[in-house]
Write a structure and sequence with these properties.
Elements: H1 3-15, E1 55-57, H2 68-78, E2 91-100, E3 103-104, E4 107-108, E5 124-133, E6 148-156, E7 159-166, H3 179-186, H4 197-205, H5 211-217, E8 232-233, E9 238-241, E10 247-256, H6 265-272, H7 278-288, E11 294-303, E12 329-338, H8 343-348, E13 361-363, H9 367-383, E14 451-453, H10 463-471, H11 474-488, H12 493-506, H13 508-522, H14 535-546
Antiparallel strand pairs: 1-14, 2-5, 2-12, 3-4, 5-6, 6-7, 8-10, 9-10, 9-13, 10-11, 11-12
């Protein structure tokens, strides 16, 4: 068969929905033993036999640096957009202060952490906060269903601390290897450039751990009324470390003192018709008027072990730690009191990373946290530039002295007074930089286990999702069912059936109502449009039908 014939056959196959090699490809089509044309490989052609799990010490972690498949996958993902953020592109921000209570609940905080920003009642630390949506572009409406980013940069006396999280307390996945797949399913189709419920639920119906997030995201909790009146969460599990080097697991939560407000889908659509920048405007005008929004920072603390008494793994980002067992303990209050003077210089160029911790704060073995810690800073170097930490919005408000030199857009040298500028290495006997004394004992967790690619033992994908469904008020459940029905109405039958099954495993009523909603849609009743077209398809035709003729000029 000639190359031309082969390309024609490939084009025809593509029209029938089969993945094919693009015209002009240099690939010769050879297959390794056990492969077929649909076998997933790396860019190096290595067959991928496990695309669900990082390689970790034991199935709880930590991850290891030689995770080549993950590093290649996430590095490419970090560079998919230029220069807009791949995720969290649409954002708003503000400056403020964080005031420490000096305690954690009623206890002395130094029992758990030696981090200085927490240790003195009334101590103030400057902060910058960036709120955002996750999956949509930089000028997308702020009424779209999406998690909201909630990233806080603390300019502490020990350097910057970035607490990077979302408004919702859980996430879709528990392993960072799946993050590019998750976001790809929520981004536009690479052929049609349109987002679709079918793509999103195709991923979700094959990822049962996402059901807890679904119980939130497709309810009114998926559309906060604005940025001021939404909760925040670090989502990941971190550690606190005290002066003796003893660590505990910790979860962070921001509680808005303005209260919490969410929108149903029809309410959000009505707002979008009038103002698609409403949340940015709300934040800016509130601060301008002196109505400074405030959040209390609360933490949950757990001993640093596997906790076999729980029916979930405490390092699993798809789970919530029960508040009755692990109470929310207040540690301080944040007030946003100053708007940016220039959006691009401050909000757009603000760069956050989950690896930006100060002494007394540490990493847990949370697989999502470990993957994000590479990805976030790698993204910032690519998106903003090698020297992004020299920008005023990102620079620490304290002494900085490094041996890092050069790179694109370097505009000063991070040198110390009296430093020998010829010496950009350490150790040195020629007036170079010296190591700092330790602030406390090193935290040294012990590990014993085989290096494996395995899911955690206690997945328990459905219990908390079902509990959340039952905790919703009836109007929230109605909105959840309506939104899922609308998003799934045009999806393939196999995806609809899988989602009904997953919802039923969470709660029988959830599955029953979703099945009824989809059946009604197929029958041309609730959720369907004329001629069984989706709302989106109807809008395409309506735009032409109701438009007004105009004469050329």
């Amino acid at each position: 068969m000639s190359q031309e014939q082969d390309q024609t056959r490939g084009a025809n196959a593509g029209e029938n929905g089969t993945a094919v090699t693009g015209a002009g490809s240099s690939q010769d089509g050879r297959l390794a033993a056990g492969e077929n044309a649909n076998t997933l490989t790396t860019r190096q052609g290595h067959p991928v036999y496990d695309n669900q799990n990082l390689r970790t010490v034991g199935n709880r972690g930590p991850a290891t640096l030689e995770n080549y498949q993950f590093l290649e996958k996430i590095s490419h993902f970090d560079r998919e957009r230029v220069p807009e953020r791949v995720v969290h592109a649409r954002g708003a921000g503000a400056h403020g202060i964080f005031e420490a209570y000096g305690k954690v609940g009623d206890e002395a905080i130094d029992k758990y952490t030696r981090a200085k920003l927490f240790n003195t009642p009334g101590k103030e630390t400057p902060v910058f906060v960036r709120f955002s949506t996750v999956g949509h572009g930089g000028h997308s409406p702020e009424t779209l269903r999406d998690p909201r980013g909630f990233a806080v940069k603390f300019y502490t006396e020990d350097g910057n601390w970035d607490l990077v999280g979302n408004n919702l307390k859980v996430f879709f996945i528990r392993d960072a290897l799946k993050f590019p797949d998750l976001i790809h399913s929520q981004k536009p189709d690479p052929v049609t450039n349109r987002q679709s419920g079918e793509r999103i639920f195709d991923f979700i119906c094959n990822t049962p751990e996402a059901m807890h997030m679904v119980s939130f995201l497709f309810s009114p909790w998926g559309i906060p009324a604005n940025y001021r009146q939404m909760q925040g969460s670090g989502v990941n599990t971190y550690k606190w470390v005290n002066k003796e080097g003893v660590g505990v697991l910790v979860k962070y939560h921001w509680e808005p003192l303005q209260g919490i407000k969410n929108l149903t889908q029809p309410e959000a659509e009505a707002i979008q018709a009038k103002n698609f920048n409403h949340a940015t405007q709300d934040l800016y005008e509130a601060i301008k008027a002196g109505n400074f929004p405030q959040w209390e920072l609360r933490v949950q603390i757990m001993s640093d072990d596997e906790h076999p008494e729980l029916d979930f793994d405490p390092l699993d980002d798809t789970k919530i730690w029960p508040e009755d067992q692990f109470p929310h303990l207040p540690v301080g209050k944040m007030t946003l009191n100053k708007n940016p003077e220039n959006y691009f210089a401050e909000v757009e160029q603000a760069a956050f990373g989950t690896g930006v911790l100060v002494d007394g704060l540490d990493f847990s073995d949370d697989k999502m946290l470990q993957g994000r810690t590479f990805s976030y800073s790698d993204t910032q170097r690519y998106r903003v530039g090698t020297n992004y930490l020299q920008l005023p919005i990102n620079a620490p408000k304290k002494h900085v002295a490094t041996n890092q030199r050069d790179g694109q857009m370097a505009y000063h040298v991070d040198s110390a007074p009296g430093q020998n500028l010829h010496v950009n290495y350490e150790p040195s006997s020629l007036q170079g930089l010296k190591e700092s004394p330790r602030a406390g004992a090193e935290h040294m967790p012990a590990y014993e286990g085989r290096l494996v690619r395995q899911a955690i033992d206690r997945t328990n994908n459905f219990k908390q999702a079902g509990e959340r469904y039952r905790l919703h008020e009836e109007w929230e459940r109605n909105d959840l069912i309506n939104n899922m029905t609308g998003a799934l109405a045009d999806a393939a039958q196999v995806i609809q059936d899988k989602m009904i099954d997953l919802c039923s495993q969470c709660d029988a009523d959830w599955g029953r109502r979703l099945a009824e909603g989809l059946q009604n849609a197929r029958n041309g009743n609730a959720g369907a449009t004329q001629a069984n077209e989706s709302k989106a398809s109807a809008a395409v035709h309506e735009a032409e039908a109701i438009a007004h003729d105009a004469k050329p000029y």
